[in-house]
Amino acid sequence: MADFRRVTDDLSVAPQISVDDLAEAARQGFRLIINNRPDGEQPGQPTSAEMEAAAKAAGLAYLHIPVVGGPTPAQVEAERAALAEAPGPVLAYCRSGTRSIVTWSVGQAQSGARSRQELIGLGAAAGYDLSGVLGG
After folding, report:
1. Which terminus of the chain has a smaller tally of CB atoms within 10 A, N or C?
2. CA 67, CA 103: separation in Å to the nearest integer?
3. Mean residue pLDDT across the chain
4. Tens digit of pLDDT for each residue in 68-109?
């Protein structure tokens, strides 16, 4: 069973999910899947193409924004824009979920949508320490 971690009403993050987890994501009401993991990062992980096909089969929109290390400004903006335009709740994932929540939180902090302290609190509630990324 996938470990979907609610961050806000509009965003949850997860460690690596499987093709089979996408049907569960659809059942839980997610509308967009964002894959923040590059293909080939670890042997045996599903490829972006496999995940996209399964997401579409489950009725979900899909976006691949692979992040290596820290997110670039372009990746932060792409994720921010995708979340702003999403037709409903979003599930973003990577190997551990950390790159997904970091990419989101940097965009939130830069846009002024949420304070750094609020973001650190939301991260902690989902099991992620964002203090090193956001300061605080």
Report:
1. N
2. 8
3. 94
4. 989 999 999 999 999 999 989 999 999 999 999 999 999 999
Total domains in the chain come to 1
Domain with 96, as residue range(s), is 5-134
Within a 10 A sphere around the Cβ of 82, how many other Cβ atoms? Answer: 18
pTM over 0.90: yes
In this structure, what CATH number is given to the domain that contains residue 88? 3.90.190.10
* CA distances in angstroms from 101 to 36, 83, 124, listed in the order given: 10, 12, 11
Q: For residue 135, give both structure tokens.
A: 């300061």
Three state DSSP letters for 22-65: HHHHHHCCCCEEEECCCCCCCCCCCCHHHHHHHHHHCCCEEEEC
The residue behind tokens 């293909």 is 39
Pairing of strands 90-93, 32-35: parallel
